[in-house]
Design a protein that fits this description.
Layout: H1 2-28, H2 35-42, H3 46-52, H4 56-76, H5 86-103, H6 105-115, H7 121-149, H8 158-180, H9 188-213, H10 225-234
Helix pairs in contact: 1-2, 1-4, 1-6, 4-5, 4-7, 5-7, 7-8, 8-9, 9-10
């Protein structure tokens, strides 16, 4: 019982360090945030910090993991939906990913400017690489099942996975940067133009999914215009 309590206390303290680090990163950037600054904010010693994280890079890994864990829980169950076709499961995968981002919209807004600052290049790169590792198994399972059932005409290869994720990450970054560039008091015309651009980018991404898998044209399209309008309005 005592050992279990110690493990729980360790987990709670580790999470506190990570959450405090996210606050500092939002304000200063990961590269410019020092370990000394972090431990001062936490009121702990440097030795105590290194009990939880071996280095600043180790801390970065922990921050990335917590960022992805909630997202993973949101989408992991999709691969187990045997009641759905592979096409429907992939649409559900896109839907659940979008819903997770919506549920965490306030956090995204708070770190958006920080996220694309030059000082956080290493953090963005690490998140992209870990996201690839997290989401690829779900997509591969769905696409393999679709190929075996005849829904998808092309087999999903490592090259397909790399191209697919690169398209998702690249277009996602483009949308985020465009939203970040939207003026604080943007006009209705500017907001509607951005929403239309997001729609076209999303359509292009869905067409990429269909080409890579050999799915029927239009079958893998998912876009919640009202949800995305709320995102644009909140910027």
């Amino acid at each position: 019982m005592a050992r279990k309590r110690i493990a729980e206390d360790h987990s709670l303290r580790r999470n506190e360090i990570i959450q405090t680090a996210w606050k500092l990163v939002s304000a200063r950037g990961f590269e410019t945030m020092s370990i000394q600054e972090l431990i001062d904010a936490l009121g702990m010693s440097k030795g105590a910090f290194y009990h939880y994280f071996a280095s600043k890079t180790d801390l970065l890994d922990g921050m990335v993991e917590t960022l992805l864990e909630d997202s993973w829980r949101q989408v992991a169950s999709v691969s187990e939906r045997g009641d759905l076709s592979s096409t429907a499961r992939f649409i559900e995968f896109l839907k659940q990913t979008t819903l997770w981002k919506t549920a965490n919209q306030a956090k995204y807004r708070g770190i958006l400017a920080m996220w694309y600052a030059d000082a956080n290049l290493a953090l963005r790169d690490r998140v992209h690489r870990r996201s690839y590792d997290v989401y690829l198994p779900v997509m591969r399972e769905i696409f393999d099942a679709g190929y075996n059932s005849g829904e998808f005409k092309r087999q999903f290869t490592d090259q397909s996975a790399l191209l697919l994720y690169s398209a998702m990450a690249g277009l996602g970054d483009h949308i985020a940067r465009r939203m970040l560039a939207l003026p604080a008091h943007a006009s209705r015309t500017e907001k509607d133009a951005l929403l239309e651009e997001i729609y076209r980018v999303n359509l292009l991404l869905c067409e990429t999914f269909e080409w890579l898998t050999g799915a029927e044209p239009g079958s893998l399209t998912f876009f919640d215009r009202e949800l995305m309008r709320n995102w644009v309005e909140s910027q």
